Amino acid sequence: MTFVIGAACVDVMDRACVEECPVDCIYTGDRMAYIQPAECVDCGACEPVCPVEAIHLDSEIPAGQEQFVAENARFFAEPLPGRDAALGSPGGAAAVGEIGADTAFVAAYRS
Ligand code: SF4
Ligand code: SF4
Asked: What's the rounded Cα separation, in Å, for the pair 83 and 49?
C-alpha cells in the first residue's frame, strides 16, 4: 500500500503536496507530480493539501484512473522518454530538482 497521484494533477501540478511530504518523495515531472513508492512512508500528509484531490491510496484510486498507480511506479522504474537510465530511488526530490519529463502514458494523456 502506498499513496499515488492520479489524473487530476495533470496540467495542474501546483506542488502543494511537495511542501508537505516529510520524506521528500514527491517528484515533479512535466505535466504532473509522482510519488516514489519505495520512499513513501504512507503518512498521508500530502493527501488533504491537494487542491484538486488528486492524491489517493493506491487501493482507493477512483475508477478509471487505475493506470496511474502503474505510472507512479513506472516514472521511477523505467527510463523516461529521451533518457537512458531510470530514476530509481534518488532519496529526495529537492536534490534531483525538476525532472521535466513524464511517462509516455502521461505525456499523451487526455482527460
Ligand atoms: S498538490 Fe495535487 S495538483 Fe498539486 S502537485 Fe500535488 S498532486 Fe498535483
Ligand atoms: S503519504 Fe506521506 S510520505 Fe507518502 S508522499 Fe504523501 S506526504 Fe510523502
From this structure: 31
Burial 71-99 (b: 16+ CB within 10 A, else e): bbbbbbbeebeeeeeebeebeebeeeeeb
33 ligand 1 Cβ < 6 A: yes
User: What is the distance between the alpha carbons of residues 110 and 78, in angstroms, rounded to a whole number?
Assistant: 22
The pLDDT tens digits for 32-91 are 999 999 999 999 999 999 999 999 999 999 999 999 999 999 999 999 998 999 999 999
Closest Cα to atom 7 of ligand 2: 21
> Widest CA span of the chain, in angstroms?
35
Asked whether the beta carbons of 54 and 9 are under 8 A apart, the reply is: yes
